[in-house]
Write the structure tokens for this entry.
Amino acid sequence: MSTPGKLQCKKLIHAVGPIWNGEGTQKENCLREAIHESLLATERLGLASIAFPALSAGIRKFPNDVCAEIIATTVADYITDRTETCVKTVSLVHPDDQGVAAFCKSFSPFKVQGTLLHSLLCSSCVCSKCLTPWQTG
């Protein structure tokens, strides 16, 4: 964890996802753990929101659809498993249309505490492709 520098946030939680090599389950579990640990850190710090990049996609070669599905289920499980959480908003950031489409597809089926979890921000702008952050409560 570090200070955010010029970013518009209170804290910067560093997470490193695994490199995809097609092995599947072990790498997927590592990604799940990185997302879960980031959510726990957010909770410990008493922060109300967190934004995730497409951790392990891009240069770490995780396919967008696999990455999106893992992040979607990990976030939904985390929020569903807690009766009370200070985490109220989860945002996703992805720099390209294919990634945005993968996240939209993966998040559309989830409802948590009666609120549809389906949101994304492209990293380069606030534009018509961008949806509002998920509200968890």
User: Anything to note?
Assistant: Strands lie at 49-53, 89-94, 111-112, 115-116, 121-122, 134-135. The radius of gyration is 14 Å. Helices lie at 25-44, 64-80, 97-107.
